[in-house]
Amino acid sequence: MSDFRVEFIPEDPRFVLNTQTIDEIKNLSWYKDNVSIIVNDTVQFADCGANFEYVLCPFCKSDLMEWWGDAMNKAYSNEAGFIYLDVITPCCNKNTTLHNLDYDFPQGFYTTMIEMEARYHQSVIQVPQELHKEKIRQELFKITGINWRIINTHI
Questions:
Q1: What's the confidence (pLDDT) of residue 51?
Q2: Rounded to an integer, what is the distance from CA 73 to the centroid of its chain?
Q3: pLDDT tens across 107-151, in order?
Q4: Confidence (pTM)
Q5: What value does the CA radius of gyration of the chain take, rounded to a whole number of Å?
């Protein structure tokens, strides 16, 4: 049986929640035992798992899959995580970031993540929060003042 997660990451990959904000989030109606808040010391990549099919240039829509792997390797350090997110697209030579490429399913980079694990009842996936993803994103914006990206991960 496949597993699913709904993850929320800030549009600023280096944004870190403070203790007070974490406490505010834990008091929201959708914060349940299948929700966790992850805060890393380094920038990490949140991928969509089995949903991942392609990466395109955000400007000219060229296929970047072959280039993307090398760009990810250059951006990553075993000790420090992802440190070089700024890139120049190989197709049209424009400045952007690995975070802002056009992924088929949303993906991105984060230091802070809010993760919602799927629940199963009689072999049926149940993620009640998934029905309210946009509402959750809006609540996170109100609390933090920054936009959040929704990642639907299929493992």
A1: 87
A2: 18
A3: 999 999 999 886 554 444 455 544 588 889 999 999 999 999 999
A4: 0.88
A5: 16
Question: What are the C-alpha distances in Å from 114 to residues 40, 106, 118?
Answer: 12, 15, 13
- By the 8 A CB rule, do 47 and 107 touch? yes
**DSSP structure string for 68-91:** HHHHHHHHEETTTEE---EEE-TT
CA dist 107 and 99 (Å) reads 8
* CA nearest to 105, candidates 46, 35, 38: 46
CA distances from 42 to 27, 46, 74, 85, 141 (A): 26, 13, 16, 12, 22
d(Cα 54, Cα 67) in Å, to the nearest integer? 11
CA distance 35 to 139: 15
Q: Domain residues of the chain, as ranges? A: 4-154
